[in-house]
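Researcher: Here's a chain I'd like modeled. Treat it as a single chain, no partners, no ligands.
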Amino acid sequence: MSADKHRSVLDKGRIKLHEFIRMVVSQRTYLSTFIGAVLLSATLSATAQVRAIYDQGALGLAQDLKRLNTNATVLMIGAHPDDEDSALLTFLARGLSARTAYLSLTRGDGGQNLIGPELGEALGVIRTEELLQARRLDGAHQFFTRAYDYGFSKTLDEAKQKWDEKIILCDVVRVIRSFQPHVVVSVFGGTPADGHGQHQYAGYISPLSVKAAADPSQCVDAGAPWIVKKFYVRHRGSGEPMLKINTGQYNPLLGRSYFEIAMQARSQHRSQEQGVLELKGDLFSSLDLISPILTGENDLGIFDCVRFPAPVQIDLKDYNPSQPDLLIRPLLARLPESREALLRAAGARIDLLADQETAVPGETVPVAVRVFTPLADKLRLVKTEFNFPQSARPEPTSTASNFFGREKPDFAGYYNIAIPANSSVTQPYWLISPRNGDLFSMPSGDSASKPFGTSAAYADITLEIEGTQFVVRRPVEYRYADDIRGEVRRDLNIVPKIAVAFDRELLIVSTDATQMTREISVSVTNNMNGAADGKVRLALPTGWNATPVEAPFAMQRKNEKATVKFKVEMPRTPGTFQIKAEAASNGDTFSQTMQTIAYEHIQTHRIYRPAKADVKLIDLKTVPVKVGYIRGSGDRVAEAIKQLGVDVEEIDPAMLASGDLLRFDTIVVGIRAYQVRPDLVANNKRLLDFASNGGTVIVQYQLPDTFAQRNLTPFPAQQGPRVVDENAAVKIEQPDHPIFSFPNKITADDFKGWVQERNLYNFSTMDPKYIGLLESHDSGEPANSGGLVVADIEKGKYIYCSYSLFRQLPAGVPGAYRLLANMISLPKAQK
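Model: Modeled as a single isolated chain. Structure tokens:
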């Protein structure tokens, strides 16, 4: 029987599920007999934006039933978002119905961002969310440790220096003991073959954690000991693996192979450019069994030789997809673990909807609780208990016109919930306190393993079916219709009444400037329903003055912003200084900057920091030049050029294709622009012609396969090396070159205080027409002069600079600004 016929028979309800599965089993291998998935928790479901059809209706309930009939549990461990073997996770969760999870040591904070300007901790929030979207599709759970991704690393030793082994070990042990996997799979082996030093660390810590989890004398505060039955490492390199799993098997219930679903999940890693093809056909994940060593037996499956108690079985003969309510009684007997399956069997859908996305402390928020079910005669809404004080309110009268009419729930309740005046703002729990080096600081009583904390507002809803009561928890959401995307849901967040922000959180001031007064703007945002007014004040370093001393603001409605301006006079004293801002309103003082992280594929999150601006007074000279900027990905260098007081204009696709480029002295190409700007690739010759006619082109770091390998450089070159030690020695190879003398004298001191790395994707081999200006390399590696090179192109100059200015400039590193000023000034140095 064909797969199409299988689906047709099932859809028409002519046979029951157990008969359908038996027909499929008779024609497929042992591994393909298992059809199921991990039942996602209510919290995960609420935060996910992607809607997986695999968890809905008859498909979702069928997977719930298979999952309830096994206790098999497996944990995969890697270092970063995107390290996971997505296909294996999907096979385990949706194929073998095992409770499956991925533990990422970090949240990917140290990478680059292809979709926006967020870097560091803000990028970690995005990548945490992207992992949740992936798990929503592949069916696994997601865990973390407190390790901060400090950037690319080459050695295990560096990772050990950054991450306290005892702390990370116990973080992993805590996950093992709470999740209780029978099998652990390490993505990495803990050797230099893993490449990235953080990969090596993940491979190193995994077997130690498995052993420690079973030892009651280790990590005594991390839960009761747990013995892992089998430990695998992902097979890499030559030789035959001990176990090959065909993740390309087609699942007739899901209508796709596990690999196809996995690649759909992997494509959720948008900030990492992980969009991939959803390939069909046989594809394999390969594993090597490390412990225990099996003698005289073949390892035929990941759970072979693993003994675990079987739960009370639900007879699949009782499941008819056309009558899922026949399963209600056996599911009631399996409470509380069967709660979500029970809701699916009853067709029950629960909404807790507020009419606003944000609320402030002390505010009252109307919330509607609505339950929809085709079995209104069997299900009853007993009570709703919010985590905040609540009071009943009348059902609102809708005046909104809707072509389709109003929703008509089977059960409903309408409440006002009172947000306490002392409520904390909603933010990622690991960012509440400052980091301790490269480890996040955890709030008291919190584990580092959760993706996000408990929803700010939620309710425990008591339902009754056939005389049995059970409780489900749901978050309060804000639902709205986007004109393009349709229905969008966001969790209700608690925010400060007023948010305060500087227009620039970093101010670069030259001590050589003609005058030392700068205009500084501060914006205030009203997050309250209603008007807000007050005054903004600055806290200045000793000897600094602001005019006015305080500035009034007034706003009439929620989300309105007001901007106030100050003239700040500062001395010519070199150094780093800080200006703070606060807004006083109605007897309260507000001094937090709220950064909203919003993309359509993830939940919106808000992170907070003190409202302050760092001021760097440095010895910096500039000359008048006209700069054109071609923006890349996650790129804030154009803003840094503006800080120099230089005339800079962004070059859009139309200007690049047909505009007058010769009106610029220098054109700067942003990081990875050749990857994200097809118009740049198409018009690369115009850039080279600009240089030939006397202009200066500066290209910041690019990926090899989108740049040098495509012959987009003026002369042949190959890329490869990178220097990850931000303190690696830098030698100026051509000290008399104008880049090191005009208008600023560049010395070794300009390479002090750098962050995360020196450079990346340097030229490894290059045409003799290029001149290497700087040399730097990591310890134990050969010298490399391909990080900053210059070449003559007829009348002009071409510069490739892979030194990580995109990280140094936002961090306020003085030497990076001085070097940038010299590079963009090169046309003037030659005249």
